[in-house]
Structures are given as C-alpha cells and as structure tokens.
Amino acid sequence: MMNKFAFAAAALLTASPALAGPKVAIETSLGTIVAELYDKQAPITAANFLRYVVNGKFDGTTFYRAARNKANPKIGYVQGGIDKDYRRAFFSIDHEPTSKTGLKHTDGTLSMARNLPGTAMGEFFITVGPAPYLDARPGNVGYAAFGRVLKGMDVAKKILASPTWIGRGSGAFKDQIIKNRVKIIRARRIG
Questions:
Q1: What's the confidence (pLDDT) of residue 9?
Q2: Residue 184 pLDDT > 80, yes or no?
Q3: Which residues are bridge partners to 63 per DSSP?
Q4: Among 27, 35, 85, 125, which one is least packed by beta carbons within 10 Å?
Q5: pLDDT for position 19
Q6: Cβ-Cβ contacts under 8 Å for 122 (sequence gap 6 or more)
Q7: Cα separation of 145 and 143, whole Å?
Q8: CA-CA distances (angstroms) from residue 117 to 58, 94, 103, 113, 135?
Q9: What pLDDT sits at residue 168?
Q10: pLDDT at 169 (0 to 100)
Q11: What CA–CA distances, in Å, run from 186 to 28, 54, 160, 169?
C-alpha cells in the first residue's frame, strides 16, 4: 500500500509540466483549439508540427476539409494546414506509425496528413470521435498521431459541421471540401 508521502510524490510527478509535451494554441475564425504534442512518443512528427508553428507557417492558412463519417456525420476528422502551398513547406519527414509510437486515433487526436508514408509536411488533421481505421495495422501503415486536443473540441466539431461542396473534390476528398474555409488566424506555442 502506498503511504501518503509516496502518493503525493507520484501525483506531483504525474502532474509536472516538465513531463508534459509542448502545448500549442491554434486560433481559428471559429475559436481556439489548444493541443498538447506527444514529443516523447512521436518525436519526429511533433517536432515537425512545432517547427511549422514557431515559424508562422500555419498563420493565415485554413481548415479546408471536413471528412464526415457517412453513417454518423458528427464524427470524422477536419484537415488543415498549408494545403499544398509549397512556399510554406519544409522537407517531408519520416513516417512514425502508431504501431511504433503506441498512440491511437481516439477523439481529439492530432495526426499528420500525407500521401505516401514519408511525404508528410505541413498538413494535419484532428479526429472528432474515435478513428481506429487511421491506426497502423497489418497491410496498412496508417497515419502518424502526434498529439491531442486539450481544449476546443467544440471548435473542431463546428469545423466538421461546416457545409461542404457536394460533387467537388476527387478521390478521398470528394464532397469534403469546406465551402467557406475556416481560417487559421495564427498558431503559437504556449506555456
């Protein structure tokens, strides 16, 4: 049985900001999303995202995609970032699959968008509801989760509910392009 001193010490270590990952505020035209980055579990991906933040690369970009689940449109994910504006881009990064990091795509997960593994740059998404289909599994390397929303899931839900262009977009983007893109006013490191 743990004595009071040991319990207090364990609680202090668990709550210590030094053990927490970097925090980022993403200020949008619909409100602010605050996220914590998992820099210990996904160091390459978290550092990449933070590099875009501290260099102002997300400032003035948008959330441009609302990928709603067809069976339940209140869940899915919202995608934002540089949207192929390569003037804002840094070089692509190595893929850190969830099978390597131990992270999962649960409600409020931040993850990197990509084409092929190893092509992620400055586009990311936030899950609204659990999305285990985005995790790595045999025959599919999945996506690189690297953080979680601490505050502002109501904002992510508003973005997901944004009207989209029906019949526009191709492939996975069909019917998912937001009509009035949600502006990312600025993203900054906090705390």
A1: 41
A2: yes
A3: 80, 182
A4: 85
A5: 61
A6: 52, 57, 58, 81, 82, 88, 89, 90
A7: 6
A8: 22, 7, 17, 10, 13
A9: 87
A10: 86
A11: 7, 10, 19, 26
